[in-house]
Amino acid sequence: MKTVVVGILVGLTLAVTGAEAAPAAKPANHAKVPPGFFGMVPLTDPSAADARAMSAAGVQSLRLLVYWESAEPTPGNYDWSYYDSIFTNIASAGLSTAAQFSSTPRWLSDNANRPPIYSSAQIAAWQGFLINFARRYGPGGTFWEQHAGLPYRPVTSWEIWNEANLTGFWGGPPSARDYLGLLRASGTAIRGVDPAARIVFSGLFPFPTPGEGVKALKFLNAFYAAGGTNKMFDALSLHPYSVSPKDLIPTCRRFRNFLNRHGGRRIAIWITELGWGTGGHIPNTFYRTTEPKQAAYLTRSFKALIEARRSLRLQRVFWVTWRDLGGSNNTFFNMGLLRADGSAKPAYYAYRRLALR
To answer: Nearest-5° angle of CA 248, CA 295, CA 28?
Structure first.
């Protein structure tokens, strides 16, 4: 799920239920989970206040949706001020960033969702952007040199595209062979700057409806059949939205078993989108529920995932989202732990109890 909503909630003040005011009373004991396990997908640019509030609620990492044109508005002309401010907010709160890259700038394509791999000029431009982003925000990057007073939280993971198995997010009929080309070009550019970078396979929506895209396991089969290898990525990203939590572990298990059968036991699984909405009607009302049930589903999901994380080799879980988008009729935009006015839903307290225990 990609949103191009930028900053419209930055000016809102968090309300009385204390999403920001509540202190992180004691250090979290995360002995059972790896670093960064408790993640969040903010749908708007994280303000300094929101970043602090997320940290106080036990959030450890943010999935940052990176839009190329925001950093390179015209070919070869970089303006890092936009992302400098975002990284300042995130790092100041002690959060890490899981960067997710999709969208093609208007100066390169008339379809922002169509990946930039269909000409040598597109590939060169795409690789140039990734290289420059890595040199700016990756380990030893110029941003960190220029902001030595900030907690050091460089980008070490790179998720390449979003829901590449869905027609809408691929900008046309999905192609595993073409995605292989995108992943190969991306990995070459990124690892040329940071050999230790972790490449994350595009978040896959497991079971799209007819006409919506290609089923994720079929897409992965086609990826390997086209020559894809396990060396090309370090983690497989999933978006296992479910009608209820009981479907979550069986879905993840199918992908773990698939990777194991294909020699990918070392490959981790990341859940980079998970949630249930408490408002909206379109699309996907299957994922709409009440506020009390949202909290219950969140609790059941995280407890089950923590229990199964070793057998799944699960490393990260990112909840969608921190705050609802006011006035939206889209269920996905109403999955927040906070309401649009900043007041906390029961799910906020459920997340905080789990993350800070």
So the answer is: 90
